[in-house]
Amino acid sequence: MYSKKIIIRYSADIVEQPIIYELVKEYDLVFNILKARIFPRREGVIVLELTGTKENFDGGIRFLKERGLKVEPLSKSVCQNPDRCVHCGACTAFCPTGALHFDRETWKVQFDPERCNGCELCVTACAPRAMEINLF
Questions:
Q1: Backbone phi, then psi, for 118, in 5-degree steps?
Q2: How far is CA 105 from the centre of its chain?
Q3: Burial state string for 46-76 with b = 16 or more CB within 10 A and e = fewer than 16
Q4: 10-42 pLDDT, tens per residue?
Q5: Mean pLDDT across the chain
Q6: Contact 80, 26 (CB under 8 A)
Q7: In whole angstroms, what is the distance from residue 83 CA to residue 130 CA?
Q8: Using CA atoms, how far apart are residues 122 and 124, in angstroms rounded to an integer?
Q9: Which domains does the chain have, with CATH numbers?
Q10: pLDDT tens per residue across span 33-71
Q11: Tally of CA atoms within 13 A in the half-sphere of 111 that contains its CB
Q12: What is the CB neighbour count within 10 angstroms for residue 31?
């Protein structure tokens, strides 16, 4: 099975269409909604973890793009600003996925964007604002 976290940005004219239903029905993808901001007749954003075969996943992503939705990996929107990070480790205590962790050799905070679910707890915990999350 293939699994990946993505961000889908909806335009106002697409927001009321059953896009996620189509991913399940036509592409046999399992979805987990990690975060969403969707309003009637307005632009929306949804963060999903999609799971299925690689072939079905790729087909589902093509379907979304053909419908005019903007799709990008979640990791593209979450980053650690190394110029701001003081490696205090406060963020590691709040990270539920282990995306933020200490490197035991260098004693520096490491960020693995593939493990990040975009929960934003690291932003709150980081006093120097080294974690930057721009989902919306």
A1: 75, 25
A2: 29
A3: bbbbbebeeebbebbbebbeeeebebeebbe
A4: 888 887 788 889 999 999 999 999 888 888 778
A5: 87
A6: no
A7: 8
A8: 5
A9: 2-75 (3.30.70.260), 77-133 (3.30.70.20)
A10: 988 888 877 888 888 889 999 999 999 999 999 998 999
A11: 21
A12: 16
Where do we find the tokens 């909604």?
Answer: 33
Joined tokens for residue 81: 């600003």
Amino acid at 95: C
User: Mapped to the 3 state alphabet, what secondary structure does the chain carry?
Assistant: CEEEEEEEEECCCCCCCCHHHHHHHHHCCEEEEEEEECCCCCCEEEEEEEEECHHHHHHHHHHHHHCCCEEEEHHHHEEECCCCCCCCCHHHHHCCCCCEEEECCCCEEEECHHHCCCCCHHHHHCCCCCEEECCC
Report residue 77 as tokens.
């929107």
Using alpha carbons, select from 49, 44, 46 the residue that is nearest to residue 35. 46
